[in-house]
Amino acid sequence: MLISNGLADPTGARLGRVCRKLRGDLHMRHTMKAALVAASMLALAGCRQTTTASENASGNASAAGTAQGADPIDGTWKTDLASIKIDSKPDQYLLKDGQFSCATCTPPIAVAADGAFHPVDRPYADHMSVKIDDDHNVTRTNQKGGKTTFQQKFSVSADGNTLTSTFNDTSGVKPVTGTFVEKRAAPAPAGAHAMSGSWQPQRPTNVSDEGLTVTISADNDMLHLSTPAGQSYDAKLDGTETPIKGDIGGTTASVKKLGPGSYQETDKRRGKITDVIRMTVGADGKLSIKDENKLDGSTTTSVANKQ
Fold first, then answer.
1. pTM confidence score
2. What element of type H or E holds 169?
3. Which three-class secondary structure state does DSSP give residue 17?
4. Cα–Cα distance between 293 and 272 in angstroms, integer?
5. What residues contact 296, with CB distance under 8 A and at least 6 apart?
6. Residue 212 and residue 78 in contact, taking contact as beta carbons nearer than 8 Å
7. N or C: which end of the chain has fewer CB within 10 A?
8. Backbone phi and psi for residue 30, each to the nearest 5 degrees, phi listed first
9. pLDDT, tens digit, for every residue of 163-180?
């Protein structure tokens, strides 16, 4: 998953597809998505954990689940940040002559960098502002329906080779915060702000638990998913498109079972497939997640541990 409505509009995901909102916009698409990915869907959901706290404490959760015929995927999972791997093209930003643009965002962004809110047509924002704080720092803020849903602060290092971003995704019932860095891949054009140029995304350095945690349970014909940030779904395993509750971008999820403890989720937004996510519990008891972003061609993998 996941994962909010970050720059990447996120996995999105929000890193647990902070829920898929990030994915659609600037770089948040890599961050949240990543974490959320592990959580499996920056925007995921469900919510019926069959493993009890007492079973976890005694170390018999696995045996108890098997005796009851529970699916290996049942439980609450938290993404291991160190496990996140992102395979993507560099992000391309340009801040020059009072205008900000992101050619690699999906969809691309172009807005005046005057600190005022301007109308935009994006799944997770209807207004956006870009404010130049100084020659090395920039703040971007998203609004939807008059509410601030996402804020991202960019900071370029003194040597100009590292771009650090801190984000605060407030689109859900609980905020998701975090930090990620990008390494310069190409210089800024002459006369442009220091944040301009091409930047290669790295894995997040920190993400709050709300963006890394997901609860999943399965029964005979449905998969149930939920995140602390407020995204959830109850999807039939016949591929029926199911709206993701709490996802302000209008994302739907279609789920099919691949085998015991293994599921594939296909996300759509505005009539287009945005992500194909495969979640599988391995012999080591860890949840492996692979998120293929069909809009920007990136792939994010991660591993989550049962809590």
1. 0.81
2. strand 162-169
3. coil
4. 11
5. 23, 29, 88, 89, 104, 106
6. yes
7. C
8. -90, -40
9. 999 999 999 999 999 999
Q: What tokens were used for 224?
A: 């149930």
Q: What is the DSSP string of 40-109?
A: T-TT-------S-HHHHHHT-HHHHHHHTT--TT-EEEEE-GGG-EEE-PPEEEEEETTEEEETTSSS-E
- 28 against 280, higher pLDDT: 280
Strand, coil or helix: 182 = strand
Query: Rounded to an integer, what distance in angstroms lies between the CA atom of residue 17 and that of residue 107?
Result: 17
Q: How far apart are CA 71 and CA 66, in angstroms?
A: 8
Phi-psi region of 257 (alpha: psi -120 to 50; beta: other; left: phi over 0): beta
* Unique residue bearing structure tokens 């789920």: 255
**Residue 298, token pair as written in the block:** 């990136």
Contact in structure between 201 and 64 (CB atoms under 8 Å)? no
**pLDDT per residue as tens digits for the range 276-301:** 999 999 999 999 999 999 999 999 99
Contact 18, 251 (CB under 8 A): no
pLDDT at 68: 53
